[in-house]
Amino acid sequence: MGSMLKGESIYANPDHNKEYQLAHYTKLTNITLLMKWIILYKKHPELLPNIKELIKTTNDINNQCSEGFTALMLASIKGHKVVVRLLLEHSDINVNLQNVFRYTALILASSYGHDAVVRLLLEHPDINVNLQNNYGYTALMYASMYGHEAVVRLLLEHPDINVNLQNYCKDSALSHASIDGHVVVVRLLLEHPTTDPTLQDIYGLTVLGHIMNEKLRILCEYSIYEWDNKQQLIEREKEDLMERIDFSIKYFHKVVRLSNTTLYFCLYK
After folding, report:
1. What is the pLDDT at residue 211?
2. Across-strand partners of 255?
3. What is the rounded distance in angstroms from the CA atom of residue 127 to the CA atom of residue 106?
4. Burial of 71 per CB tally in 10 Å (0-12, 13-18, 19+)
5. Which of 9, 12, 63, 219 is such that its CA lies 20 to 30 A from the CA of 158?
6. Where are the alpha helices (DSSP H) in the chain?
């Protein structure tokens, strides 16, 4: 891996007495010196002065490698708050560029749960908080799916956030958070005034439909392998249902209308 740094003056090491390893990023091609030093920064913080100088002198702060990553994207993935701030201060920075899979710096930072970086990105006046990647996922969807509560809070505070966007399977941020059991995130999403819990996926299921399907699957699997404990499981399910009903009444005013009956939206805990 160290051989990638030899023979090309543009990739000259700032300290020739050290061997700089790119680890998992060796598959990236046509990366600039700035990108390379950003990748190395965590293990080699002494590179910061060199990074600052490159940011000031680079001809194209938005340069993309063959896979479409920019310096800002790589700094966002790594959670380098100091480097991200420096990049965002550049007058020509494009915060909304997308790589070959249409991931943005914001989507990447949100996916990894780097809330400090997300905050900085959201403060940029040009940020588009609702961009979707090739699979239809937004920054909010990833943060919700992985249970990154601090990131979800920040995204929901942005005035342009669209909480009801759906991916290629027509799943929303709410459905991902609910199915994966991230209760605090679900609360945050449902407290947003524009959230629609009645959205349907490609199978016609709402979030509640997904939850009930998952409960039924668990019950069936449990009954096959632990038949003797089936009744005990059912009792626990009843208790869980009551907790979810109380939970929904306490925290939400969202309702699902079904067969002319208004049902409180119950959550999977």
Report:
1. 62
2. 264
3. 8
4. buried
5. 63
6. 33-40, 48-57, 71-78, 81-88, 105-111, 115-123, 139-145, 149-157, 173-179, 183-191, 207-225, 230-251
Residues 6+ apart with CB under 8 A from 138: 107, 129, 130, 131, 132, 162, 165, 173
For the chain, the straight-line distance linking the first and the last C-alpha, in angstroms and rounded, comes to 46
Query: What pLDDT is attached to residue 249?
Result: 39
Looking at residue 178, its pLDDT comes to 80
pLDDT reported for residue 212: 59
Cα→Cα distances 144→32, 137, 188, 212, 215, Å: 33, 11, 10, 20, 21
What is the mean pLDDT for each group of 10 consecutive residues in the chain (269 residues)? 32 43 60 89 90 91 92 95 97 95 96 96 98 95 95 98 94 86 84 85 75 51 45 53 47 35 33
Alpha-carbon distance values, 110 to 20, 32, 134, 222, 262 (Å): 28, 24, 16, 35, 35
pLDDT value of residue 1: 32
Residue with tokens 């930072």, as numbered in its chain: 109
245 vs 267: CA distance, rounded Å: 8
